[in-house]
Amino acid sequence: MSKTRYLHIIFSEPIQAYDIPKFRAAVIEKTKRESTLFHNHIDDNSFIYRYPLIQYKVTDKKASMICLAEATEDIHYLLKQKKFDFRIGKEILDYEIDDVRLKYERVQTWDETFRYNIHNWIALNQDNHREYQNLGSLIERMQFLEQLLEKHIRIFMEAMSSDEVIPLKVKLQEIKGEKHIEYKNIFHLTFSLNFSCNLSIPNYVGLGKGVSVGFGIVKQMNVPEASYVPEASLLRNKNVRNSSLLQNKNIKG
Q1: Which of 6-15, 92-101, 119-128, 243-252 has the lowest mean pLDDT?
Q2: ∠ CA(142), CA(119), CA(86), 5° rounding?
Q3: Strand 170-183 to strand 186-199: parallel, antiparallel, or no bridges (unpaired)?
Q4: Where are the domain boundaries for CATH 3.30.70 in the chain?
Q5: Number of DSSP helices (H) and strands (E) in the chain, helices first
Q6: Nearest to residue 197, comparing CAs of 105, 117, 114?
Q7: What Rg, from alpha-carbon coordinates, does the chain have?
Q8: Which residues pair with 150 in a beta bridge?
Q9: Cβ(150)–Cβ(199) under 8 Å?
Q10: Rounded to two decimals, what is the model's pTM?
Q11: CA distances from 119 to 63, 175, 195 (A)
Q12: What's the confidence (pLDDT) of residue 44?
C-alpha cells in the first residue's frame, strides 16, 4: 500500500479568500509556467482536465499552497526563485515562507470512520443545480448531495491512486450553511457541511469544483492535526523563512 507525498506551504502575508485567484496567477507567472501542475493548461486555449495537484488556499488567514504526489517535486520551480515578490491585484508584495510541512499520507479506506467538515464546497453544475432545486424535501436534497460528495471523493481517490481496501462509505451528516460565492464571474451555490467517511483524507485538500483556488476544503473534526489520520506524519519542518533553506532538503520523499 503506497503513501502519498503531501506538502503544505504557508506564506507570511495575510490574504482574503477572494484574492486567491490573484495569488495563484502570481505564483504561475513566478514559475515561468515551467510546469503545467501549477495551472493545468497546455496553452491559453487548452485545459488539462485532472484533479489539481497544486492548490492555493487561505490557512490561518495567510496565503498557502498544498502540493500532492508529483507536485511536491515540481514545487522547486517556485522555491528556486530568489524572491517571492507577487503581484496581488495592483500591489506587489514581498512574501516569505512561514512554515513548510512535508508528510506521507496513506490515503485509503479503513474499517473505521472519520468525521470531516467541508467548507464552501461547489457541488453542483448547471444541470444538476436545476435537479437539486426541484427536490421537494431536505432528506432528498441531502441524499442528492451525498451522492455528489461520494463522486467527488472518488475523483480524489483516483488522482491519489488510493487503495479501496474496504468499500468506500460516505454519509452526509449535517448541512451547516449555504452561500453564493463568485467563481469565474458566476455566483455558485456553495455548501459547508459535516460528513463521515472511511477514507483518510489529508487536511486542507479540496473536493468539487474550484479546488485549485480554495473551494471545498476538507478538515477532519475533533482530532489534532499532527495525528489526524493513521500513520500520517513522517516529517515536519517548522519556521522555514526562505527558499534557500528548502533547496538543501530532499522533498521528493
Answers
A1: 243-252
A2: 150
A3: antiparallel
A4: 4-105+233-246, 109-227
A5: 6, 12
A6: 114
A7: 18
A8: none
A9: no
A10: 0.83
A11: 17, 10, 11
A12: 62
Is the pLDDT reported for residue 235 higher than 90?
Answer: no
Query: What one-letter code names the amino acid at 161?
Result: S
Kind and range of the H or E element at 151? Answer: helix 138-159
Query: CA 43 to CA 45: how far, in whole Å?
Result: 5
The string of pLDDT tens digits covering residues 106-128 is 999 999 999 999 999 999 998 89
Q: Which amino acid is at 147?
A: Q
One-letter amino acid of 103: K
Here the cell at position 240 is 522555514
Q: Which CATH architecture has domain 4-105+233-246?
A: 2-Layer Sandwich (3.30)
CA–CA gap between residue 53 and residue 80 (Å, rounded): 19
Domain covering 109-227, topology: Alpha-Beta Plaits (3.30.70)
Distance between CA 142 and CA 107 in Å, rounded?
26
C-alpha cell of 49?
Answer: 482536465
Task: Give me 17's grid cell.
Answer: 479568500
Gap between the Cα atoms of 25 and 31, Å rounded: 10
